[in-house]
Hints:
The complex is a heterodimer.
Chain A lengths: L28 H15 L7 E5 L3 H4 L9 E4 L5 H11 L4 E7 H7 L1 H10 L3 E7 L2 E2 L5 E2 L8 E2 L3 E2 L7 H7 L4 E6 L3 H12 L5 E6 L15 H7 E3 L1 E6 L14 E5 L5 E6 L10 H14 L2 E8 L22 H4 L3 H11 L1
Parallel strand pairs in A: 1-2, 1-3, 3-4, 4-10, 9-10, 11-15
Antiparallel strand pairs in A: 5-6, 7-8, 9-15, 12-14, 13-14
Helix pairs in contact in A: 1-7, 3-5, 4-5
Chain B lengths: L2 H11 L5 E2 L1 E9 L4 H14 L4 E6 L8 E9 L12 E4 L5 H6 L6 E5 L11 E5 L1 H7 L7 H4 L2 H12 L2 H11 L4 H21 L6 E2 L10 E4 H11 L4 E4 L6 H14 L11 E4 L3 H13 L4 E5 L1 H6 L1 H10 L3 E9 L5 E5 L4 H5 L9 E3 L4 H18 L2 E7 H5 L1 E4 L17 H7 L29 E3 L13 H19 L6 E3 L6 E6 L3 H12 L5 E6 L1 E2 L3 H9 L3 E5 L5 H9 L7 E5 L8 H13 L1
Parallel strand pairs in B: 1-8, 2-5, 5-6, 6-7, 10-11, 10-12, 12-13, 13-16, 15-16, 20-21, 20-23, 23-24
Antiparallel strand pairs in B: 2-4, 3-4, 9-17, 13-14, 15-22, 19-21
Amino acid sequence: xxxxxRENEIGLxxxxxxxxxxxxxxxxxxxxxxxxIISVAxxxxxxxxxxxxxxxxxxxxxxxxxxxxxxxGFNALHGRMPAVATGATTVNKDLIAIGVSGxxxxxxxxxxxxxxxxxxxxxxxxxxxxxxxxxxxxxQFSATADQGQQLKYAGVNELPPIDICLEAIAAExxxxxxxxxxxxxxxxxxxxxxxxHRGTAVLDIISPCVTFNNHETSTKSYPWGKxxxxxxxxxxxxxxxxxxxxxxxxxxxxxVEMHDRSHLWLKKIEPGxxxxxxxxxxxxxxxxxxxxxxxxxxxxxVDEDRPAFNEVSHLVDExxxxxxxxxxxxxxxxxxxxxxxxx
Amino acid sequence: xxxTQRAEKVSSEDEQQTIxxxxxxxxxxxxxxxxxxxxxxxxxxxxxxxxxxxxxxxxPSNIQGLPTWFTVRVSKDGYVARKGTxxxxxxxxxxxxxxxxxxxxxxxxxxxxxxxxxxxxxxxHMYPVPVKExxxxxxxPSNLRDYVSNMVYVGTLAALIEIEMGEIEEALKxxxxxxxxxxxxxxxxxxxxxxxxxxxxxxxxxxxxKRLDLTKNMIMLDGNSAGALGAIFGGVTLVAWYPIxxxxxxxxxxxxxxxxMRLDPETGKAxxxxxxxxxxxxxxxxxxxxxxxxxxxxxxxxxxxxxxMSEFAGLSYFAxxxxxxxxxxxxxxxxxxxTRTSQGDVLSAYFLGHGDSKHIVLLPSSLKEAxxxxxxxxxxxxRFQTLVLVLSDLDLGMNSWMSEPxxxxxxxxxxxxxxxxxxxxxxGTFSRYKDVDGDGIAYRTLPGTKHPLAAYFTRGTxxxxxxxxxxxxxxxxxxxxxLNRKFDTARSAVPAPVIDEVEGAQFGVIAYGTxxxxxxxxxxxxxxxxxxxxxxxxxxxxPGDDVRKFIEKHLRCYVFxxxxxxxxxxxxxxEYPELAPRIISLAHLDGLPLTAxxxxxxxxxxxxx
Lengths: 343, 609
């Protein structure tokens, strides 16, 4: 095999996972995330024809056009992608859904749908490219903007921010992570874990807007992120088929078995650090970070026992879209029986 | 003078002809007092006697306490429109009993609880009934009396208008399918009231029913259940919805039908998902997501719901995604009269969404059409890759109608133009929005199709025929023209109007949906005055050439519809601007189904003006 064009396990090259050229600003955090999605899908040998890329409206929501052109994409309505994801994954449980949203799309107009998607545990990797600002409309505050923050045209933000991870856990989320577009390695490992998760995997990724909100006083900027990011764990994703043993000394590692039997090895950065299987600890971590303006990143909460929506919907095992007509239209006798009961 | 004596006096002073099988009963009750069972039993026992009937529930937006009226029309001529006047009153609501009695015509009949004080009225038959005593005598456990008390008026009516007791018993068995004890206990009360009435009430009442043979092989159901059943046979795979009167019972019925007919025999698991959404925005969003992925998806809602769904409706039109909305119309604007019927969403449904959007609209006017459009809507949505709205209303959806049995779909399920991986290999190329066949309908692929050419990017933004984002004017124009071409293709593919032309017609009448029964009856009334008209019943939008031809034939075309603004008349005037002056609106909306009398009055006013 030539090393320059390496094929993955299903015979695809990295280029087969590429999208169309981006139209976002140079340096935008969203482009970095798109690149990590491409890398991860290639590395995990994901069949792009099984993937659906879903989004709402906004800069972030444009990005599904910029990765994996061999996958069906759907740039839907502002804040309404969760409903679209629910419909698509319910009629075809074989699809791998990757949703890309933003802080306006998720934190404002779509907050209701977001929380209900999480509550239903729809099987979707739900990425929030969070930059604290409405960029397509030229620089208004979003609901995740920092209190007291100042923007050129919008003035001072007097209101407290909505914490997407807190909202997710309050809605019974089964996978919640926070990351930083400036830390591509962490984004990749979290994406791999998210793709192995059975329900909704919420990835709140701080993804700086280089045009409207990248100044040092903003907690959604590259400089602030680079300075303040506190990595919760050193994450290694171990695929089910992969016999690699990670050499960590006992006690320093939390191992999470994912539903597809892959594993996450979470090496503690320091003793007594965060346990993402503990919901109360996760809520405490987020609330304290909020109060103290800290920026912990990594896997915040995970519950692999909670079934996904399609596991509790009592539907046939075959995807509904694959059912032949004779399974969808009851026979003539069925109608005759109904009619007989009504006369 | 006792009440009984008074009734006898009325009958001797005012000798009335006996009126058989041609009157209306109204049962006035307090909402939430369980009269529904009694009313259903009445309706079904009359139906079982072979007499054409129609039951209409005129109810409040309330759980308990407000007045509600149930009308049962018996008509030897088979008329099923609402009648403005009821001749037989069962007055079980102390609050409205005064106005209820006032509404009776001379010679009318009123049954009421004997312990209530009522205003005297000399020109009707008053029948006080000792409800409490009869219940005590019927040997019903005291804790169950409330549940069966309404059977007292069933028994009393049976004696007065001569409903066959055997059919009441059969109707009870039907209603309590399998629950013998409940059926028996109710029958005991019916019997007690019947025996008492036979012994105590004089036979002065002129209104009688008599066995006919006109309901043989017919069924009785509500339109919401018929629509749900149609969707089940249309192979629906996802129903997402949010509860709203009067559409809720459509999905309630559908859920039951899924359990009956859409479970895998081996696993017991369903082949259709029913998802209760958090609101109507999410409901239609799920439908669009499912339709995009290849599901057969629908939602059911009413006016406020389609307002919320309008943004997704535009997306369905523009991104070309199959979806079905059942709009069971109620009176708007705003919350309006949420438990009253209307055809007020026609304009907004046809053009739902911002920008130049327009949709296929189906207009069922009977149970049979509710069933047929239930499956056909899913086929049309897949065929045209677009939103299809079925405009039913509260009258059709929630009231009880007779019908001939439904016909099993005569054509296979239509999934529309979907390319498989094999097709793609054979073709070697795929452009999502290219008009290959010249009918405006492009080919699509479904997510999950295992072929490198299968994927495309769906968006509500401007796009070229390869589904690539484009702001170029020529791309926008080309796409719009193709969408219009597609809409024109739909004109001859949607259910055609039913046209009934007669000799000597003086003008044309156009109606649709639940104004149809009033047109049928009104036509007979006018015939007696030597007035004849041709009749076109619309069954879908966009209208086809036959509608234009019908209007061209008549100098005056009166459009009857249950709204205030004459919405369909406006649509037709816009479709045929050169014929606009001939299209005359006779719209009327008061929350109740149109009556033949009102239709005749409105028509004659215009004709004689």
